[in-house]
Amino acid sequence: MSRFKLTQTIEYFLNKDKRVITKTIGTEDALDSEKQNIPVLSHLYVGDINYAQNYTIYDVQLSITDAIVENNNLDDNKWLGNDNREEVFNNISNIIKHFIGKFRIEPEGGEVFLIGEPNATPIFDFETVNRFAGYEVNISLGVPELNMNLCQDF
Length: 154
Fold this sequence. Notes:
Oligomer: single chain
Number of strands: 5
Helix content: 10-25%
């Protein structure tokens, strides 16, 4: 039951951010970069699970990316803006800060709470036609198990 609560809360917070267009959840910790015309893309992967006394801790990996668009005025100087890579990283960083902030502002938002400090790493996908960039954030989220009974005898 707590995994449903976790994924529904994450989906709820992502749906509140109108900048995130497509949301996917998968059993693999890899973003499907072959998707077409669906920026801004978020992909949720729920990894390891730790069972505490009255709550479950989920290690969650959330990838948020957007497509890199080339400027027609090619130049060797990236600071002149040959593509929108810096804008993409700035936008995705703001989306992630907003997403994490929701768990801090509404710590009981859907009864899911943040544990520790999240860590984000950049994503570069220049191999596929879509050319995505963004961040992958690793967070630990706790979900109370209100109906959990930890009896020693069964």
